[in-house]
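ok trying again, last paste got cut off:
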Amino acid sequence: MQEMWNQRYSEKDFVYGKEPNQFFKEQIEKLIPGKILLLGEGDGRNSVFAAKLGWQVDAFDFSETAKQKALKFAESENVSINYEIADLQTAELKENFYDAVGIIYLHLPEEIREIVNAKAQKSLIKNGFLIFEAYEKDQIKNTSGGPKDVDLLYSLEDIFTDFQDLEIQKFNKENVFLNEGPLHTGVASIIRFAGKKE
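nice, full thing came through this time. structure:
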């Protein structure tokens, strides 16, 4: 699995583009910059955007190639990000530390997803904000990206259950036209969730 992601991020082009995810951008621009955690960050589009807004960024992924690409991207944009390689299932994330957490298109098996999402919530301070976007199960019918295994796609119930302790700010399934680099292009079925830790 790690080798697959290293190969994917070895492309010269940014496979998901250099622009931040649209929903992440909309939500993060509403917040006062502080400390943010980004999980499954890939080649840096969201972490670099957050850093340019003044956020102190901690990013995690398990692709060394993605990390190197993200750090070069950050340097080219004159910002700094802290980027660690880790298996999120076993990684120790700081608790009650972050003002915001971003989880954008991180597709994991159910038992690992539940562990990672629980850690993400625990990492937030009181009134901290979580931003999540991923493919919904209907995405299996589309050709605009995402896992080809329906078990790695999410239902509204999955996400509601995982984040039930957060105060919902936005939560819905949407059909959108993605334009996020060559691997996220076309009509897509997605879940968007924003919630605040009480």
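cool. Residues 2-197 form a domain with the Rossmann fold fold (CATH 3.40.50.150). Residues 4-10 have pLDDT under 50 and may be disordered.
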